[in-house]
Amino acid sequence: MVIQKIMQNTMEWGLVVLRLLFGIVIVAIGLEKLIDVTGFRETLGITGIPSQLAYLVASFEVLGGLLLIAGFIIRIAALTIAGIKALSFFWAPYMDSVIISGFEILLILLTLAVIIAMNKKHKFSVTLQ
């Protein structure tokens, strides 16, 4: 009983750390795209995705990351990020070889977003009922 409680508490705190660090990484990725939006637009254009979506995608990443850090509407933020990463993962084969070599990172980010979205109860968070 005591061990089970310790393990549950440890897992909850582990998810808090995961959520915070993942949010920081996603904000950094989004900011990088916003800083070099011209390069990001060109990358999207190469894949056939409308380059006008560059601002939207980068903004969603920054906003989603900030929401994860703040602990607000975590599931929606994580699912939005998961959607962006899933699309990126499936479009990666159409990109040049420099980007293809990073597909494993996209898969890791997608997996982390899904893990965060699947958790129903988050410490230090605000949820909408």
Topology of this protein?
Layout: H1 2-35, H2 37-47, H3 53-70, H4 74-91, H5 97-100, H6 103-118
Features:
single chain; about 130 residues; mainly alpha; elongated; transmembrane; DoxX; DoxX family protein; cell membrane
Structure write-up:
With 129 residues, the protein is mostly helical. It has one domain (2-118). Helix content is 78%, strand content 0%. The protein has helices at 2-35, 37-47, 53-70, 74-91, 97-100, 103-118. Helix 2 (37-47) crosses helix 3 (53-70) and helix 4 runs antiparallel to helix 6 (103-118).
Helix content: over 70%
The percentage of residues in β strands lies in: under 5%
Described by the principal axes of the CA atoms, the overall outline is elongated
Number of domains: 1
SS content category: mainly alpha
Rg, alpha carbons: 16 Å
Helix-strand pattern, N to C? HHHHHH
Number of strands: 0
Span between termini: 31 Å
Largest sheet: none
Low-confidence stretches: none
Mean pLDDT: 84
Subcellular location: Cell membrane
Protein name: DoxX family protein
InterPro entries: DoxX, DoxX-like_oxidoreductase
Transmembrane segments: 13-32, 53-78, 98-118
